[in-house]
Amino acid sequence: MTLRNSWARRPPFLFSHRARVDQLVCDPRSYVRAHTASGRALWAPMLAWSAGPVGIGVTGDNSLASLTGSNWLLQVCPDGSWVLYREDGADLIVTPWDDPPDHVGATARHPSLAFDQSARVVLAWEEEQVIKVRRWDPTLGQYVENVSFAGVDPVVVLDAVWSRYVPGSDVLLFYLSTDRERLMCRVQRDVYAVEYEIWDFEAPTVLDGVVALPWRYEVLTSDEHGTPMDPLLVSAVYPVRTSVPVAGDGEVIEGLYELLASEYRHGITVSGDAHVDVGEYRLVVTRYAHSITVVGDGVVEGGEYDQVVTPYTHTIRVDGDAAVHSGALIGPAIQVIHSLAVVGDGVIAGGSYVEG
After folding, report:
1. Nearest CA to 346 among 271, 279, 267, 253?
2. Is residue 32 packed enough to be buried (19+ CB in 10 Å), middle (13-18) or exposed (0-12)?
3. Cα–Cα dist 69/169, whole Å
4. 263 and 309 in contact (C-beta within 8 Å)?
5. What is the per-residue pLDDT across 197-256, written as a single tens digit (0 to 9) for each?
6. Are 228 and 314 in contact (CB under 8 A)?
7. Is the pLDDT of residue 134 over 50?
8. How far apart are CA 244 and CA 222, in angstroms?
9. CATH 2.60.40 assigned to 2-234
10. N or C end: fewer C-beta atoms under 10 angstroms in the chain?
11. Which among 102, 85, 99 has a CA at the least distance from the CA of 28?
């Protein structure tokens, strides 16, 4: 986990730009996310978005596109019931549960939604500083709720959404310790039984969410009063996988990916009584260099690497009279080197990044 000194776009807590309030089947149930320094309560609705399949349990060809190609919205109604929607163009379509979860109690808060590798629903939520998990057990062929542990602000997510690779993927559950000072994680392959400490904030914190970056994730947090925090946390780079078909009597003897640089620079210059109107995150770019060595009667016919660009926006405000119109994040710039060596009568017919 690396530390980045910057501001980032925060998840809109009331409703995302896609959460059409007039299409919800019940009024949004809310909980207190934080209290301002003056004691005013900041509320958040019990809604959660997730990428997912076209239908519950529908894995398609088991590719990343099949498992994460649709957008889903989870809602907890005032009576504690759960509603699941799938986004279809401009509409939210209520989708029946394959096995409806039980109603939650009056103290339930901070629900989170993900889909596992079998396209089944994974739910996590908090009740009185105890995190509960509802997951699909492939051995039993049914949903189980046999995992609970101390913690607050759970966020569950399938890591294939940033690793771009389904085989070997995991469902990760991030949360905070009950004193809100440490970021913790549990994983599907451990049946959520093992607790890993990711970061110590050394101060009370609110976990807002976990977002996907190219081959890594970013943890979004706020301070105890609900104000977005600086610094933010960005994970190390996940493995970048490629597919290179080889024809003939050739053998691929080497393939290497090496992280050369990971750079973050953010500059804001303010002088006098200034007011920063806006600043933007621009072009979070991952770049690739590609070299192929062929020994023997081999032919290299081509190799292709796609550049990945993820835009972000943020807003910074400083009280004062004047205006400062500049402010930008440059990076993160990640350079990955790829080399292959082939001996014998081989042909490298192509090379491309495969995203699951």
Report:
1. 253
2. exposed
3. 16
4. no
5. 999 999 999 999 998 988 888 888 999 998 888 657 888 888 777 666 666 666 655 555
6. no
7. yes
8. 43
9. no
10. N
11. 85
Banded pLDDT at 23 (limits 50, 70, 90): confident
What's the chain's average pLDDT?
75
- If you search the block for the tokens 């939604």, which residue do you land on? 113
Q: What is the pTM of this model?
A: 0.70
Q: Is 331 left (phi over 0), alpha (psi -120 to 50) or beta?
A: left
pLDDT of 27:
86
| Three-state secondary structure call for residue 163 | helix
> What is the Cα 5 distance to its own chain's centre?
19
Q: How far apart are CA 318 and CA 196, in angstroms?
A: 37
- How do the residues of the chain divide into helix, strand and coil, expressed in percent and rounded to 5? 5, 55, 40
Classify each residue of 157-169 as buried b or exposed e, where b means 16 or more C-beta atoms within 10 Å of its C-beta: bbbbbbbbbbeeb
Q: How far is CA 101 from CA 31, 44, 82, 143, in A?
A: 20, 22, 7, 9
Half-sphere exposure of residue 211: CA atoms within 13 angstroms, side-chain side: 15
Domains of the chain, by residue range, sit at 2-234, 242-353
Residues 6+ apart with CB under 8 A from 62: 117, 166
Cα distance between residue 50 and residue 172, in whole Å: 13
State the Cα–Cα distance between residues 297 and 25, nearest whole angstrom: 66
Q: What percent of the chain has pLDDT over 90?
A: 48
The two three-digit tokens of residue 271, written as one number? 């002088």
Token pair 């970048």 is found at 240
Q: Where are the alpha helices (DSSP H) in the chain?
A: 64-68, 160-163
Q: Tell me which of 20 and 107 has the higher pLDDT.
A: 107
CB atoms near residue 279 (< 10 Å): 22
The tokens for 265 are 């620079």
